[in-house]
């Protein structure tokens, strides 16, 4: 298992700076040999040294080592505190700080000062009578070839009192090589007098294999002094047998089962993610600040309303100011609370590499995966829900997109197919792209299949984009054989549905022979959106601001009626379909109305535009999205509902859903009405 | 699942230890010094204790001694994490009743292999 210790570096730096501040403050107050404060200073230096060693700052660790030694001598009283020494230690604190902040900010530390200070610390240490020993890190002893080892292991009776277990030692030995052991029951007392908490057994052990002596010794490292031990080499001659000493041996890791390890680790990590969020303290502090602001604003408004009640008309303007301030506070608070829920998308990307690796084996294709933008953040809920569609899309790319190696070679492409996964922010959205350099979509086959499934009619003329988009249609699958990789019932239509339900959109672009690219566009958060309030008939609706291109007044004469009794509107140099939300959703027949000078909200979804006829534009505001599914049921064309300031409920229109509705259904079969009838 | 009590006053080191062990599938209880560790240990038995030596309040050596006095910790493996590679610190730890030691700085891999040597696989 590899663990990236970089993620702890920030914490290490923070606590080291704190430690340095403590050292500085205590050193400045140091007068005489005050053991308590020297101890605090020592401990800070000690922690910095330990952490620096662990997190890879060996220069800091080496430098601090000298400081620590000096402090250790001061602490134990073998060196007295003098003003010169204190001054040197303060300089050392500056040096460590500059070395650490160099890492933090990318500046270079003052190397000359560091070297100079280090040399002076060294010279102080050199004239020390009681220079404390700190052995150099043990050099790895050169492994010595041997046939094996014969070991006599006689634990002392109380070996288990320190938590050691002879059995553990035996099993550690067995991991080094072939082991045979004989238990010596000679010391076992009669059962009546036996103390079960003591060890009465001894062992004669033979371990075969080319094992360095240090490896054997390290197994017994912790019980030296708690057992009688003889270790003899089996082949005669090379090394004289002697008692085990362990001064500079370090335990060598037993060969653990790596794969199994990693698997369980991944699982554990995934479980942890769903249960909690780790939040930077700075984010929390910012929240607390903002709540403070909010409280101030509230008390100000409270005061103003009282004055207003007492008939003071002059405070109207202040009241409006206050409300503006409240708005600002609320928005900031909202943004920051959202920020807390943001997690890097790497959490969703994590399972992909392993999957691609497995797929590569199962499909007999050579695949490589490129991940970019793993640190892009998005809402935790979105993150959780996007994971499955992502897996599906990558699986599809590997299965249907990338060709077999021979085919790729024949087409002059590298045999290894590449799948790219990329995430980035764009406006209020996060974009996730899944691209492959495979064969691209086979449009002929898509057309055939769509005809076969009755999704399109023979005479229908479709652009390449529209053809490509058909793969998202329900029940569509172009794979020649249903493979065990992709053919598991979930189609691309489910992927689109899932993404749409997250308020996002998915589209595919493809170039024959060069590959396909699926682009997923998701809102950063699910719970709040900027909306445009509109009125249609008696109803108020909200249109998400992100999908609105512009709102215009219909210019008479720009409307065209086409076959199928559909309406088109000429918007500059293109024609866009005109949709009636009320008609689509509620079945109100208001087709006789005069559309000249009516208001048209131009929306865009999935690369297409449409004009929605509305009666009035009411205003823009942020709305909190309430799911319709949980309270009612899923309705095509509706993204959710919200509660307006006056307490009424307004439905949030889903632009892409409306367009699909309009293209799929004849205008006379509105959705809600039809379903209601069916239900009745 | 096996539970490990990790004691260290350094936040970053403790984080590293806790993260590494949790990722390997162990349950981890944290404490920032000897006193906190002792009260954790009194309220819950653990399968292994990893403790730093130099800590404010109660240091690691005293903690080992106090833990050994608890009925539930008489045979529990206790490892001291020490930067002192010399024999005295190790000896001091052993005399207090420690099972063994791990010399700082250590990598997550070294930590895991040592813990596995004592505890075996996380779920075993």
Mean pLDDT of chain A: 78
Average of pLDDT of chain B: 87
- How many strands of chain A? 22
Helices and strands of chain B, in order, run as: EHEHEHEHEH
Which geometry of chain B do the CA atoms define? Answer: globular
**Strands in their spatial order, largest beta sheet of chain B:** 2-1-3-4-5
Report helical residue fraction of chain A.
40-55%
Q: Please state the CA-atom Rg of chain B, rounded to the nearest Å.
A: 13 Å
Number of DSSP helices of chain B? 5
**Terminal CA distance of chain B:** 7 Å
Total DSSP E strands of chain B: 5
- Unreliable residue runs of chain B: none
Q: Can you give a write-up of this model?
A:
The complex is a heterodimer of chains A (680) and B (124). By secondary structure, chain A is α+β, with helices and mostly antiparallel strands. Chain A contains 21 helices and 22 strands. A six-stranded mixed sheet of chain A has the order 14-18-19-17-16-15. The two termini of chain A are 60 Å apart. The relative contact order of chain A is 0.05. The model of chain A is unreliable at 129-144, 237-275, 480-489 and 667-680 (pLDDT under 50). Chain B is built from five helices and five strands; from the N terminus they run E-H-E-H-E-H-E-H-E-H. Chain B has helices at 11-23, 34-43, 60-69, 87-96, 108-119; strands at 3-7, 27-31, 48-52, 78-82, 100-103. In chain B, strands 2-1-3-4-5 form a five-stranded parallel sheet, sandwiched between helices. In chain B, helix 1 packs across helix 5 and helix 2 packs parallel to helix 3. The termini of chain B are close together. The mean pLDDT of chain B is 87. The chains are: A alpha+beta (680), B alpha/beta (124). At the A-B interface, helix 1, helix 2 and helix 8 of A face helix 1, strand 5 and helix 5 of B.
